[in-house]
Design a protein that fits this description.
Blueprint (H helix, E strand, L loop, with lengths): L1 H24 L20 H4 L12 H10 L4 H13 L47 H10 L1 E3 L2 E3 L6 H4 L9 E4 L4 E4 H5 L5
Antiparallel strand pairs: 1-2, 3-4
Helix pairs in contact: 4-5
Amino acid sequence: MRKTLTLVLSVALVVVAIGAGLVALQVPVPKEIPGVNFKDPWPKGCVDCHTSTDPKSKLARITVQLDNWNKNPAPDYVIAAAKGAVVAQGGNPAKVTGKHPTPGAMYRGKDIPGDPAKKTECFMCHNPGNKDIPQLDTMLYLLKYGDFQGGKFVTPATKNEFVTKYGGWCTTCHALEVKDGALTSKILLKQGKEP
């Protein structure tokens, strides 16, 4: 009887010790990644978040922001990201003014930034042939994954709302092809195009 009681108490102590150890180690719980292991709340990418018609909102539609930046310079953090992208591609950051041409009537209400392969819409100017105009991918990565500090972007981001408030998932803007791990822009997929 004594041996049985000792054995039961020993097993109970081991179980408690293992449980306490796991709690103390704070074993991580796998995170939910949109579009990978849980339903994607942003199937259209950027245009699912950027829906506001207020030009001063960080979540304004892209065409609303561009119309505003034609009349007023873009915010300092956007200009810094554009200059950072231009420097990264070997261009002259002094040519970045913070003003943007009005997208024009043909782009009104459109969600789509165009087709990079055909250099349509945004890609007519934002393409590798124009070193003094920021490439969208480089500029967007700075805006999404950098912190604007002292007039420039610092990475990795610790205060950027895209990371702190929205999780900073790659799959917010990109669709993950599970079979080969390729990331594709959701906007291009929406158009039925490949990058």
